[in-house]
Amino acid sequence: MNFTFQQYQESADYLRGRIGDFKPQVAMVLGSGLGFLGDVVENAVAVPYGEIPHFKASTAPGHKGRLVFGTLEGRKVAVMQGRMHHYEGYSYEEVSYAVRVLRLLGCESLVVTNAAGCVNTNWKAGDLMLITDQIKIFMESPLRGENLPEFGVRFPDASHLYTPALRQVARDCAKELGIDLKEGVYMYFPGPQYETPAEVRFARMAGADAVGMSTAPEVITAGHCGMNVLGFTLLSNMAAGILDQPLSEEEVLEAAEACKDKFSRLVLACLKKM
Question: Most exposed residue of 38, 55, 108, 114, measured as fewest CB within 10 angstroms of its CB?
């Protein structure tokens, strides 16, 4: 299905009824390991996805599935504690639906985080990566179907989906905090199965440094509606075929828990300077 502009407006109007005249500046889509940041938002108003018209539920492990509005590091934020994924059975338009609603509420910037498999053999599990670009060549775009000109043009430019000025903010913050921040390209795979060793080799040849099952659809949608984007990846495990061991969901969640202090300090420092 294709959502109408009226449906996006209905979702935004419902949320305005819950948050009053509060106008968020930064939207945050928090993946595995960073959802807890939504719990430390000041003067928080939390709205479960299921209560918002046209929203879908988030069923992925470790995802609370709610929007939290309030203040974080002095910035007015809308925090998505958990995201929707294509592998849950949702279309790409449904996966990225919230981004357009948050844009209507006033968000000018989007911070996205994820946990992903490390493709770059010079790096290791536990490293943090600043996303400089992305590859999404499988299946359709979240912009497929009738274009909604209220959000953006039919054929949007994708030269700088991840905003260069915000990437520099991240570099500066990482340096100040003494955090080793890698920089690289995130490649999207639909999942839910982990990538095969052959697919990981293909990703490496294509120029990817990390592979994962989220983020790309939301970023494409954010770019279409004129938002600035800052993206981070926690390299939670070495991708298939690099080490002689199977991949597991538990491994990803454990890595996210082990790195959440370092990861959250970096994200909050960037937020403060955005």
Answer: 108
